[in-house]
């Protein structure tokens, strides 16, 4: 496979799922956001992957250092990594939306918070997909398609669901600024919990590949269902 074909296949398989999900969520918005804002947030979400990699690398090193100091076992080392990585990824995705559209004049209704958080998450998922799929291409096109399909259903939906939960906190406190910090912390807690559970099942592979896949899919589908319910509620938020 030539280098140009390699790049094209990687980008196509990586970006198609997030773009399809983005199209779905944007259609749910009764008052569409400017396309340039959506693009800016999507690109910021992609850039957040780089920041996440740097932060996670440092967190991993710090966790190993602290293990040497306090002597906790491999279970806690893994647990701290799972929760820490989930927390860092949710923070960088939220920051990507915050430092772009959430500070602009276009953030003018509650549901916009969820749209922009989801868009940032999909940008994040797109570049993350490219990294995974690019690596899997070394094992052949069939393997890359399988990875892309898995991430379409699972990883991309996971990022969307977690971002939607955080966005809901901003949406529900849109007219009540005094509740914003509380709602954000609550949203972040449940987003990190969902993300951590996903990471746990991915890493531990409980029950074998087939059983683990069923549990992971059920988890992300439940998360997506919650995201849809929150989205519909956010569209009806009034003063």
Automatic annotation (TrEMBL):
UniProt KW Calcium keyword: no
Pfam families listed in its UniProt record: PrsW-protease
Organism per entry: Candidatus Giovannonibacteria bacterium GW2011_GWA1_44_25
Name of the protein in its database record: Protease PrsW
Record field: transmembrane: 6-26, 38-55, 75-92, 113-132, 152-172, 184-202, 214-231
Coiled coil: none
Keywords, sorted A to Z: Membrane, Transmembrane, Transmembrane helix
Domain of life: Bacteria
MF terms in GO: peptidase activity
